[in-house]
Amino acid sequence: MTKIETFINAITNETKQSDCRVLLDTLAQASGYSATLHGSIIGFGRYHYKYDSGREGDSFVIAFSPRKQNVVVYIMPGFSNYQPLLEKLGKHKLGKSCLYINKLSDIDLNILAEIARLSVKEMQSKYACVAS
User: How many domains does the chain fold into?
Assistant: First the structure.
């Protein structure tokens, strides 16, 4: 059993556990990257960023994390280019790069997959993205 399988199997809420298995497959397909586990975040692909301030680091191209109240999908370029899709997505909340979903049955999974594909393409156009 992989670290990711062990991590997901340890989720006590059965709906959230099932949703995480679906997200694992959906985001792997949408991104073209294999999943890696870092703490409580399951990420796909990596990129290196450097700000004008000189601050730099590495992050995931796309990721998700099961939190206590919801599942968070990290859409790294943010959501400004995805408003028409977000209107069709279903029940969700947004942060700067965070999409908060209570359960996958609240949303249209095909729309989420399209947002994921588009965000990965956007990241690949800006950064040298690599497999994790």
Answer: 1
